[in-house]
């Protein structure tokens, strides 16, 4: 699919229309993110999405390190599915978005997108469906997300 096909394209799904309300985090593409052709290696989008979720939590006042130290809890990725629409390249400026799709007692589901920014134009590069689970750090068994944390997360939708 050509880059011009996706410019300003928010009709690919309902989630794209939420990107105005989404948390966003900027990322620059570095040499280490690319393959020999200068294109971002497909698995690196998962790293970008992880960084954006971590910064989303941090913006809401939660440190993942503090969570493990105070509650013995960690978030782990349970499931991912990513659709790729256009390539990101070396030195591109990206915007990663985070939208919570669903909260459960011990898990959250997200829609995340990677957009290339070029002046006033944005090109949708990838969209991921990510499900994370809250688990006990010692035994990796599911654990309820702490109520105060869940309340703050839900309150910031």
Describe the protein's architecture and organization.
This protein is of the alpha+beta class and 157 residues long. Helices cover 26% and strands 36% of the residues. It contains five helices and five strands, in the order H-H-E-H-H-E-E-E-E-H. It has helices at residues 3-6, 14-17, 44-59, 64-71, 147-155, and strands spanning 23-28, 73-84, 93-103, 107-118, 121-136. A five-stranded antiparallel β-sheet has the order 1-3-4-5-2. The longest helix is centred in the first third of the chain and has 16 residues, at 44-59. It is elongated, with a radius of gyration of 16 Å. The chain starts with a helix and ends with a helix. Residues 1-19 have low confidence and may be disordered.
H/E series: HHEHHEEEEH
Structural class assignment: alpha+beta
Strand order of the largest sheet: 1-3-4-5-2
Terminal CA distance: 33 Å
Instruction: Please give the number of β-strands.
Output: 5
Range of helix content: 25-40%
Shape: elongated
């Amino acid at each position: 699919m050509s880059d011009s096909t996706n410019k300003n394209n928010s009709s690919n799904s309902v989630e794209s229309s939420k990107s105005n309300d989404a948390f966003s985090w900027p990322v620059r593409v570095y040499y280490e993110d690319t393959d020999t052709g200068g294109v971002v290696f497909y698995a690196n989008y998962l790293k970008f999405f992880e960084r954006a979720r971590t910064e989303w939590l941090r913006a809401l006042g939660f440190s993942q390190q503090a969570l493990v130290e105070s509650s013995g809890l960690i978030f782990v990725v349970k499931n991912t599915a990513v659709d790729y629409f256009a390539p990101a390249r070396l030195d591109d400026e990206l915007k990663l978005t985070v939208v919570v799709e669903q909260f459960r007692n011990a898990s959250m589901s997200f829609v995340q997108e990677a957009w290339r920014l070029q002046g006033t134009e944005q090109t949708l590069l990838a969209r991921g469906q990510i499900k994370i689970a809250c688990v006990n750090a010692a035994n990796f068994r599911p654990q309820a997300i702490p109520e105060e944390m869940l309340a703050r997360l839900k309150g910031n939708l």
